[in-house]
Amino acid sequence: MTEARQRWVIRALLALAPIVLALIFTLAILVLAGAPPLLTYEKLITGSLGTAVKRADVLVVWVSLAICAAGLLVTFTAGQWNIGVEGQIMLGAIFATWAGRILLEQPGTLAIPVMVAWGVVGGMLWGLLVGLLKIYGRVHEIFGGLGLNFVATALNIYLIFGPWKQKTGGTLSGTTLFPESLWLPTLPGLRLSLPFIFVALAIVGAVYLSLRGTVWGLQLKAVGQNIRSAYILGLPTQRLTLSAFAVCGACAGLVGAYLVVGVHHRLIPSISSGYGFLAILIVLLSGFRALWTAPIALFFAAVSIGSTSLQLDLQLDASVGGVLQGAIVLAMVLMQGLREKYLREQA
């Protein structure tokens, strides 16, 4: 075997190793739990792809994950660990609900775009707040984002159980359902809205092109690599950082609005569904490459939907899917470190 072919084989093995390690790790957990591993993986697949309804639900989750991951990629490129996406999704949902409550009597062709627009504004403002705390308050974006997540959760619960409380029935289910005229059009019998599939693809493509082929994207990369050097070179580092948070927040707010007008048709306590944290794992697993976020988000969406069948069919906790997702990311990070070490030794 030639040296070049040997290097290619080693790189291919390092690329496949994270998936193999994650499967072995998950397999060991299933064995310890007394669950049949092959049947568990089969149920994950059939639970996500077995019927048209399941496949549509996977795409519904994929839309949210893909848009959030695209927004996070912008802040990560700027060197900002934006952990506040959950709160930004909630603020987008709150703003969209507020707009919908005002426009209850308006036709959907007018109300739905306004609700989505206000959702984008809400998420963008919450994202900008994280950036402002970082720049002017010297609050690290991780702590600022996590803190604002709690504030957004508290605000969401207050509105559902307080001013926007249902007049009849329980409040745990959320606010009163919007009239069907304010529901995003979906395919018959499914929760899937085709326009938002194209919106998600367009956002992923726009982020890819922006980071790869624009001055703004190049400047964000410079800030992310070394913000002090970028400042010395004359780049408006503060403005660039805020723009990254604004774009990420706008994407998260769009997801919040989508969940209100297209999925739940109301504001619910768990409106964010953990999509913000899952999107972080997706970006890490993609190696910060925009085009990889879409297929990885599809895999995560399939595992999330398929995990629900584990509870129904095998009496396993649905968190098994989360274990698989987390194990893949951890194995990927480990293999990435080994790969970089190998490449340094070869150089």
Task: Walk me through the structure.
Helix content is 77%, strand content 0%. The chain is globular, with a radius of gyration of 21 Å. It has 13 helices and no strands. The protein has a domain at 52-281. The model has no long low-confidence stretch (mean pLDDT 86). With 347 residues, it is mostly helical.
Q: Which labels suit this protein?
A:
347 residues; mainly alpha; 13 helices; single chain
List the helices and strands and how they pair.
Elements lengths: L2 H31 L3 H13 L2 H26 L7 H18 L5 H29 L4 H21 L32 H20 L1 H11 L1 H6 L4 H28 L10 H11 L4 H25 L4 H28 L1
The average pLDDT score comes to 86
Distance between the termini: 20 Å
Gross morphology is globular
Oligomerization status of the protein chains: single chain
The topology string of helices and strands comes to HHHHHHHHHHHHH
Largest sheet: none
Percentage of residues in strands: under 5%
Helical segment count: 13
**Backbone CA Rg:** 21 Å
The number of strands is 0
User: Structural class, judged by helices and strands?
Assistant: mainly alpha
Helix percent reads over 70%
Low-confidence stretches: none
Offer a quick outline of the entry:
The protein is mainly α and 347 residues long. Helix content is 77%, strand content 0%.
